Every structure is written in C-alpha cells, then in structure tokens.
Amino acid sequence: MIKLVKGFKPLNMLIKLLDRVFEFRASQNAFLSDAEKPTRRMEHLPHDVVLDILSRLPITTLMQSKCVCRAWRSIIQSSLLANKHLSHMTENDPGIIFQSHWPIQNQYYFVDFAAYTEGNKILKKISVSTEHANLVGSCNGLLCFCNSSQIHICNPLTKDAIELPKLLRDPGEVGILGFGFSPTTKEYKLVEIVYQRRRPVYQRRRPIFSTHLAASNSFQSEVRILTLGGSRWRSLGMVPYRFIRQPSQVMVCGRLHWIFQPAKYKMENQIISFELTAEQFQEVPKPDCGSLDRCFYELMVLQGHLSAAASKAIGGLEIWVMKEYNMKDSWIKEFNIASFLPKELQHINASTRFPRSFFRAICGFKSGKILLEHRSKALVLYDPVHETFEDLTFEGAPNWFKMVVHVGSLVGI
Fold this sequence. Notes:
5-stranded antiparallel β-sheet, 4-stranded antiparallel β-sheet, 39% strand, globular, F-box-assoc_dom_typ3
C-alpha cells in the first residue's frame, strides 16, 4: 500500500481508489517499493482515465501530488491535464482573489469556493512575483498585474510568472487595461485603451479643463495590443469611445467588455466588446431599463452570461442577464436585491458619503446565491429564493481590499 498523507484527504482518497482498482495485482507488485507502486498503477490505468481522475481534484491537491512520483509529476505538468482540469473548474463555483489595501498593502489571498463545504471556506495566502502593483484581472487561472509601466502575468498557484514588454505612454496619457484569452487562436492578449488626461489650464485664476484633442463632441482613444509571447505592443488606431473605469474587465464569449460613453457631453452609457481573435470592437445592446442610464452600474458574469448590475435610486441592486449573447431581446431582469448593510459596517452612519446600499455584485454560485461586496470592506451572500442576506467572514481577511473572480488552474505561461 502507498503511504497515506496525514491531513491530506483528497490525495488519500485518490491513493485508496488506485489501490482498489489494482488490488488484484497486489501479488504481482509485492516486490515493488512504495515509491514504485504509484508509477506501476498509473501505467496500467488508461491514460484518459488517469486524466479524468486527476482533473477532478482541487488545484492545491494536485500541486502537492507532484511529489508522489515522477509519473504523476509528468502528468500533472502536462497541458492536457491543465486544459481538462480547467474545463471542470469552470463548471464549479468560482473562487476569489483578495488584494489587501489595509492594514497591510499588497498581500494576496485566495478563496476556492468549489473546494470546501458550507461553513468551511478557507482563506489561503498566496505569493505573487511583483509588489506594489494594481491587480488588473484574472483569466483561466492567470493574474495580470500592472506596476507603473510594467506588466506581470503569473499563476499564483503554480508559481509560473512572466514580465511583459513595458507600456510606452506619452506624458499626460492614461488608460485602462484588459486581459483575455482567444479560444480560437489559443492566445492570451492584453489590450490597452489610452487617452489624454484632462489637465487644467488657468485663465484669469479660474481652471478650465482642456485636452490635446480637437474640440468636438466625440472622444478619441488609442487602442494598443500585446500578444503573450510577442516582443512589442501594436497600435490598432483610434476609436471614438470614452471608457469608464471598472474594478475589472468582463470576459464573455472570447470578448472583453467595458462600459463607455459615446460622447463627451452625454451621460448615456453603452456596452462595448472587443473580439480578441479579429481584434475588433462592437457595440453590444444593453437592457431596456432606465436605471442603467441614471445610476452607477457595472458588468459582471453570471453562469457564463453577460450581466449588468445597476444600483437603484431607492437602494439595492437590479441584475440583468443576457441569456443569448448579443441579442437585445434576451436581456431579462433576473434579480431585484433590496438594500442591506453588513453587520461589520453597521457602526458607520448610513447618511455618510457612501449609502448603505452601495454594494457590488461579484459572482453567482451553483446554489443560486449571489456574492456581494460592500464598499471594498465586507462580503455578503444573498439568497434570492428566501431573499435573505448572510455576512461572509474569513479569519485573517484584510479590512480593506480589492477583489476579482478567479478560477484556480494548472495553466502555464
């Protein structure tokens, strides 16, 4: 028998399974050492069966399982297992990455909701390859960080990391970044949308904001793109969009999505997508709901669908879901969430600058519950069936944080 690992239930279950599968071969393998037995067992199992078994284990279990033997290490590091494991992980509940802002800056934590049962969710501290960087987003288990003009991509669970060519911006330029994956070309790409910062020009002691752009009702931004593995950024020209900053970009159907304003002096918001294979922009129809024009709102993904969460004037959130991509008539109002203030923040006066209903919808779970974030300081689980709220706390969690949805994976860079 292979020695079991104390406190390592998933690996022990796998070992016991292999022992049962090959119990009838015990007499043939009696002369083998414990270190050789897992290799022999793996050799006798069909390769697709081995991949299927391993692809269903938590990522932390697989990383420790590499130490069992050389055969397991080779399989776990293969791209075949990485792709199969990722497909299973995307079917499960997602995880989240915390980037701590206070009391300690730039500490990173991972919560894998799919790996743990109710009431046993563990906050795992992870290390990344860069410090004092802004967390741009997550894609297929890879995190994108931007530090001044430098960009890093890393897999925080496998420790793979790469530094990309620097961003080359002219003085006064600012921009937003998007990070995504093209399922057609199997390429990871970064998209930077750059525009000139508005700067005050003082005239008779009164600041007048101006830009380097010609005076017109349109707003021009330059689009630059970098393919992972490439050596330089490419310019795709100018686009007449003013993009609104969000906590992270939204990736659906091989497209990155943002909210934008079609003109300088119009408050109406629209949704724009960038197709990563053809490298083209396309406007996406938004739902017919007045609140999306009157209030702050942002995009999110629910069960693989493009969704929009809008704050209501009376408090709370409306969540609209596009059931069929790029079809305007397929937008439906899936959730209508009432106002709620987490216990952790109830000591704050509700009449302060941030109202009690100021929270974001982060992601949805297979149970139907919605994860909400309040003021980057508290998490809440909302049950739409019973219309109840549950404060979600983790021991050792930061008091002030940024977070992104993250699916742990074996994907290498």
